Amino acid sequence: MDEQHTLPFGTPEDVRREVRERVATLDAGGGLILGPTHHVQIDTPLENFWSMVQEVAGTTVHSHSSRSAG
């Protein structure tokens, strides 16, 4: 999650779109941990922060245990 551009300066839809893009790109092999970093910038609108949280919570992420071998 881009915590220097998208999260503080994007729209809530920009934030949701980036969450979906990251999940689509990085979930393929599993092990995705989606977060802004070790902190959220002080000028990040709370609406953007909660958009990120809600989009992650509503996204289906595949776990290794649910995939079949082969």
Main traits of this protein?
0% strand; mainly alpha; 44% helix; single chain; 3 helices; disordered C terminus; 70 residues
Structure description:
This protein is mainly alpha-helical and 70 residues long. The protein is 44% helix and 0% strand. It contains three helices and no strands.
How many extended strands? 0
Shape: globular
Characterize the quaternary organization of these chains. single chain
What is the residue-mean pLDDT, rounded to a whole number? 79
Unreliable spans: 64-70
- Which H/E pattern describes the elements? HHH
Distance separating the two termini: 31 Å
The amount of helix comes to 40-55%
Portion of residues in beta strands equals under 5%
> C-alpha Rg, in Å?
13 Å
Q: What's a quick, concise take on this entry?
A:
The chain has 70 residues and is mainly alpha-helical. The chain has helices spanning 6-9, 12-26, 46-57.
Topology:
Elements: H1 6-9, H2 12-26, H3 46-57
